[in-house]
């Protein structure tokens, strides 16, 4: 019995070595389980990363679609409001019974009549400017060509209005001045006329320092320019805001086309301005009034445009423009045709009569 009991005890209780082995095996199993669990978590995290990237791309794509839809909606609203505004203007213009139509009509008539009457009343004759001067008309043409070059180099701050104002001030001063000037004085008179015109027409006028250094190359000092400026202003009684041929042309263009930005109309405008600049070079053309000169240049441009682009009813179209221009400028038809013929002769013979003048084409 004792042996059996000892035997059973030996089976139930293991030796210390066996216990150590068991504990080592247990630890190995735990390590394996922990490794397996870590591998599982790593694999799960690797699986989650591409899912998160895909979800981020999808969300970004959805946001872009929403932004595009918002832009389309805003553009649609803008276009609808623009169309409604245009339609409203059309209904006002077409419907004479509209309450706003009478207000606009009265305002336009009042403004146009006042502005047009101002142009007629302030018309100044600039012909015979060299009659009492010892200045050659060829030198005057060279001065005007040089004015185009000077102001063309300041095209970011000056405009055509500055050029036409410069020539008009110079001619008006030479016509009214009791002082007899020679060719040597024309340079100073021309520079000072540009200086006054730039201050009058330009937002950022050409500084006096530039006229002394860059333009006259120190041939005209600031004191000489200031003295000539005083002489011009006092001789003209400070009346230097009179309308030029460009002002009359712009009035005609507005009467016909309002503020239309059609490229064909822009071409007609540029052609008319080019012709007026060419006319200013020719001393004989200054005998034509500024109003008549602008009207004739416009008719010539319209005639040229219609003959090149309109194949139907050319004569009828041209006559309609002529009749309307006569009403605006208050010039008879015989004068218009005579002046248009003079412009045509000038264009054909300009290079022959002025072979050394090239800035008109260079800075057009």
Task: Explain briefly what this protein structure is.
Helix content is 77%, strand content 0%. The protein is an all-alpha fold. Among the domains are: 99 residues, Cyclin-like (Cyclin A, domain 1), CATH 1.10.472; 118 residues, Orthogonal Bundle (Cyclin A, domain 1), CATH 1.10.472.10.
Structure write-up:
The structure is a single chain. By secondary structure, the protein is mainly α. Among the domains are: 137-235, Cyclin A, domain 1, CATH 1.10.472; 245-362, Cyclin A, domain 1 (Orthogonal Bundle). The chain has 14 helices and no strands. Helix 4 runs antiparallel to helix 5. The longest helix is centred in the N-terminal third of the chain and has 79 residues, at 16-94. This is Cyclin-like domain-containing protein. Residues 145-234 form the Cyclin-like domain.
DSSP strand count: 0
CATH architecture of one domain: Orthogonal Bundle
Shape: globular
> How far is the first residue's CA from the last residue's CA?
135 Å
* Overall mean confidence score, pLDDT: 80
How large is the share of residues in beta strands? under 5%
Q: What is the CATH level 1 assignment of one domain?
A: Mainly Alpha
Task: Please give the structural blueprint.
Elements (H helix, E strand, L loop, with lengths): L1 H11 L3 H79 L4 H23 L15 H16 L7 H17 L6 H19 L6 H8 L6 H14 L9 H13 L5 H19 L8 H20 L4 H16 L3 H21 L5 H4 L2
Helix pairs in contact: 4-5, 4-6, 5-6, 6-8, 9-10, 9-11, 9-12, 10-11, 11-12, 11-13
């Amino acid at each position: 019995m004792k042996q059996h009991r000892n035997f059973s005890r030996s089976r139930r209780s293991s030796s210390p070595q066996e216990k150590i082995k068991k504990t080592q095996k247990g630890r190995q199993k735990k390590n394996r389980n922990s490794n397996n669990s870590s591998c599982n978590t790593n694999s799960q995290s690797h699986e989650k990363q591409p899912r998160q990237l895909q979800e981020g791309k999808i969300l970004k794509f959805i946001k872009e679609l929403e932004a595009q839809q918002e832009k389309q909606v805003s553009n649609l609203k803008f276009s609808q409001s623009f169309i409604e505004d245009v339609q409203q203007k059309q209904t006002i213009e077409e419907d004479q019974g509209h309450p706003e139509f009478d207000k606009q009509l009265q305002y336009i008539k009042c403004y146009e009549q006042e502005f047009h009457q101002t142009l007629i009343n302030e018309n100044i004759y600039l012909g015979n400017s060299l009659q009492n001067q010892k200045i050659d008309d060829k030198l005057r043409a060279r001065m005007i060509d040089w004015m185009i070059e000077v102001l063309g180099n300041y095209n970011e701050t000056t405009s055509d209005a500055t050029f036409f104002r410069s020539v008009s001030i110079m001619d008006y001063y030479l016509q009214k001045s009791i002082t007899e000037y020679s060719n040597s004085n024309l340079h100073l008179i021309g520079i000072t006329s540009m200086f006054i015109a730039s201050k009058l027409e330009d937002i950022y006028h050409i500084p006096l320092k530039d006229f002394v250094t860059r333009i006259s190359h120190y041939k005209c000092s600031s004191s000489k320019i200031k003295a000539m400026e005083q002489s011009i202003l006092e001789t003209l009684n400070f009346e230097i805001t009179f309308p030029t041929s460009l002002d009359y042309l712009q009035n005609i263009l507005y009467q016909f086309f309002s503020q239309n930005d059609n490229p064909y109309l822009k071409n007609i405008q540029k052609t008319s301005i080019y012709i007026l600049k060419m006319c200013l070079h020719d001393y004989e053309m200054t005998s034509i009034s500024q109003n008549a000169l602008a009207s004739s240049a416009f008719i010539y441009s319209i005639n040229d445009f219609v003959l090149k682009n309109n194949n139907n009813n050319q004569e009828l179209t041209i006559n309609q423009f002529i009749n309307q221009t006569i009403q605006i400028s208050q010039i008879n038809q015989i004068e218009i045709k005579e002046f248009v013929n003079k412009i045509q002769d000038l264009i054909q013979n300009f290079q022959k009569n002025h072979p050394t003048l090239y800035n008109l084409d260079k800075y057009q």
